[in-house]
Amino acid sequence: MKIGNIELDGAVVLAPMAGITDPPFRRIVLTFGISCLWTEMISCNAVVHARKILATMDTREHTVPVIFQIIGKDPEIMAECAMIVQDHGAAAVDINMGCPARQVIGSGGGVALMRNLELAGRIIGSVRKAITIPLTVKMRTGWDEKSVNAPELALIAEHEGADAIVLHARSRCAGHCGPVSLDLLKLVKSTVSIPVIGNGGVIAVEDALNMVMETGCDGIMIGKGALGRPWFPRKILETLFGWVVTSYQSNRSLGVVVSRHFEDELRWCGVRPGLHRMRKHLGWYSKGIDGAAEFRSRVFTEENPEMVLAFIDNFFGKVMIP
Ligand SMILES: Cc1cc2nc3c(=O)[nH]c(=O)nc-3n(C[C@H](O)[C@H](O)[C@H](O)COP(=O)(O)O)c2cc1C
After folding, report:
1. Closest atom of ligand 1 relative to the 225 alpha carbon
2. Rounded distance, CA 228 to CA 61, Å?
3. Does residue 168 line the site of ligand 1, with CB under 6 A?
4. pLDDT tens across 166-208, in order?
5. Is the CB of 229 under 6 A from ligand 1?
6. What is the CATH topology of the domain spanning 254-316?
7. For the segment 110-128, what is each residue's pLDDT rounded down to a tens digit?
8. CA distance 90 to 66
9. Among this protein's residues, is 99 annotated catalytic?
10. Which of 12, 17, 137 to mutate to test the pocket of ligand 1 (most atoms within 8 A of CB)?
11. Does domain 2-241 have CATH number 3.20.20.70?
């Protein structure tokens, strides 16, 4: 798949997930393989007004394109933010028009823009003019089931110069769970000529196959399916894009993967914050493994990183990644 002038190897990408897709998580997904990575959403006000370079903008050791997602509602500030992230190594800029968080909607950004298509169009146009790298727009099906307008917004985005659309095929009121609308994804795909990446509910390789076959979408974005399973996008790449199966599965114990992820978190954001950030990942990694409840109750209260590493080694050491 091509996004503007960026040629991707395959078309399976990691979703932006605030508080989750930080550089260490992106790097652990990368060790297995992925076509392209997204940052967590970056507030344009934080970058432009507070002059903050956010930690998530660190792209060291990222060997595939990283798309920086920005969020806000002011066309000029969004354009300025886009220029800043372009200077900080973004391969492309993505505009968030899908976030349903109350605080984000309250300030007029995220999915609130799907209720104001005129402003949405001005933001896309303004960002387009400010940068030379490709531009994508991530949206939902609409505000709610009664106001489904993703095809209209996708057309506006294409007209204003976007290079690809990401459709999270749920409405704002569906949140992050529940059924996705493949019909809507198919409709958006047939409405625009730029690539359309489908997103939502892909937790098994069959879901990805089904999404592509039912809708003709050009790429697949994986969110929750990669939590505790950073190898999952690669499995789709093997099935859908013919990536060869390598020894990554048979040779690697889950203990090696989890301790590498943990050590990277500590290095990246410091011992205490890294330890706390890692807890949710340990919960996901341990899901479904015998003794997980006991492991969690011990590791979630442990503040000594050496002890946590020992727990990780002991608990995951003999588990092979599937
Ligand atoms: C904890 C969490 C944080 C998220 N943060 C973002 C974000 O920063 N930007 C964004 O566009 N979507 C965000 N999303 C939505 C995901 O990118 C994705 O669209 C959604 O999870 C549906 O895909 P899935 O069913 O594969 O998880 C977030 C989702 C979750 C669960």
Report:
1. 26
2. 21
3. yes
4. 999 999 988 888 899 999 999 999 999 999 999 999 999 999 9
5. no
6. 1.10.1200
7. 999 999 999 999 999 999 9
8. 6
9. yes
10. 17
11. yes
